[in-house]
Design goal:
The protein is α+β, with helices and mostly antiparallel strands. The protein contains 22 helices and 33 strands. This is GT2 family glycosyltransferase.
Amino acid sequence: MLEPTLTPANDLIREGGWWISTGADPFFLLDFGTSRIPSGRTIFRLDVEVEGGSFSPTLYFDVGTGFSQALAQELPVRSIGTTGVLLALPANVRAIRLDPMTGQGRFRINGISFEPVSRLSLAWHRGKPLIRTIGMQPKLLWPYAIHAAKLIKHRGVKGALRHALRDRSNEGEGGAPASEYDDWVVLYDTLCADDKSKISSHIARFSLRPRISVLVPLYNTPETFLRRCIDSVREQLYDEWELCLADDASPQPHVQKLCEEYARLDSRIRYVRRSTNGHIAEASNTALEMATGEFSALLDHDDELAPHALYMVAAELNAQPALDMLFSDEDKIDEQGKRYEPWFKSDWNYDLMLSQNAVVHLAVYRTSILREIGGFRSAFNGSQDYDVTLRFSEHTEPARIRHIPFILYHWRAISGSVALATTEKLYPYEAAERAIREHLARMGRNATVEQQKHLGYYQVTWPVVQPEPKVAIIIPTKDKVDLLRVAVNSILGKTAYQNYEIVIVNNESVEPATVAYFEEITKDPNVRLLDYNKPYSFAALNNWAVTQTDAPLLAFVNNDIEVIGPNWLGEMVGHALRPEVGSVGAKLLYPNGTIQHSGVVVGIGGLAGHPHVGEPGSAFGYFGRAACTQRYSAVTAACMLMRREVFLEVSGFDEVNFAVAFNDVDLGLRLGKAGYANVWTPGALLYHHESASLGLPTNDNRRRQFLQECDNFRRIWADVIRNDPFYNPNLTVSGGDFRPNFPPRVHKPWLAETERIETQ
């Protein structure tokens, strides 16, 4: 057994046997002394006590290319200190890092160990929890039995045994086991007979039964996939649908024969064969002409719907009849029917929609509006659904667009499909760029659009009005002159935007070098110095600083920031001048070039955290979310810009509840509540030498204050902690790496309805 020592490397201090996490991303380096660093099958144990904050430990491994998210392994908190957790460590590990939590908190580690295991001890280790459960409380065996039954049903006895004994953490890409999503599907996304029965009962109680027309433009579809497509509609648990098949003059005879066969079999299936080939937009319009339903759902000719897809749509419409548009999560399905690559989406996210088609499948539209806007346009073939969604959004409002966080659509990945390889068809991406540009023009927005290097993703740049409005860049500091000098000099030397002032707020600095620097730097006409001679409060200090400037734009910037790209300020100002935008955040990198901030997700670590932390700065992230401008619930005030009028409208930072911690997240959430968007842009790029200048909670008063502010955040924002609308309840909150959560935090309407009736 190996028992490494812990060396704090970031955001951690020691006090009386306790570790205190003082920042967003604390971590230890593990020192094994002269012992060989473990690899292969290993039982990891961590005996820990947590007092404040949310413990979500993750191990990172350096195999010669530095620490990265690709080899990260999340650790289940419940078992790491008892039976331990079995890991399959990478080969040739040079160093191991332990990230205890994603935010601030207090904890004590009583023991940490790695124990290499053989196959025999491996089987024993996996059997102990079950044996102990049977011995202690036989009734608790039921969840294990359900789990095992599901695995045996879907994989057979041999497959389930292989599942139980395999090395789970060393398979697949991105640090996730190749079968992780398989397991998630079996456990949480496979309807059992009881589910179907409850869904049928729920449907019987619907007060509204809207007809949903499923529009399918088709052309030379392989028979196997066309049958699966049609059958997936016929297998819907909600039966108030019609299937509108528009054949775009397919030359292969099996298409007409098969469609006519199904039309005879089921009166809800309507088939039209076009006389000429007009391509996908025209065929979609033909299907739309056939539709008699209040809502129209789009289905590609070789894809499949989940059996509860239309039920989920109808359930949402019963709950919110005024909805105009609905969309769901999706995954891919290969030619053998294997599901993979789930896309768990944000709720309606306008800026993300301008960066990529963030809706895609399953998309359902109110038919009357779809016809009002003229249906689909042939000039946008290949991206006709992207174009139609943008145009549709112009005729409704965000409150009438609903995201359903369930995998309701399986996108077929076959040769020649955009789902399989984006490089197989290039014309859709050019059409998408035009669709975005025309949408902005119709909305009267003077912004430019260009394709990113990743096909299917776009960058919209918002112009700055002339003359440039003045920006007050507010930088609080207490000594740490070496950091401050880098921050100020990089702003002065690298910023292309001209009309700004740097307002240094001196919070009782005492070091002679700092005083000397103040005298030197204030000779620059762009720099002002203010003295704030009160106890440190980030919220109060910045609120006061705002009163000392009349600039219409406010940039809150830490003293450990360093500018990388010269357009950072202009990029942020362009967004901040948009009337619907409340705050704008930048892309921040650690000095080693990895991501520190790409938005804030509420709920990570039990409070709030950053997604994509530790990934390379050039990483594309989860479906482009590390590289696309988008909306989040909040952005970090380490570099945040907003209009003065908006800051004052929401009363600035909360000095009472969040003097030191979570004040920026709270501000973002209050902005959202007031109807403003918090936009994160990768177009503003800076380094963040995080925690080098933080005031640490080294005394009892500061520690109590921090823990109280954690409690305040949980109390005030409990609803967003449960489900951040710009994340997804199917994704983990133990870290920001967008892995499936076991179990998901979704609300299943058929179960909720049953519980409601039983309590009456």
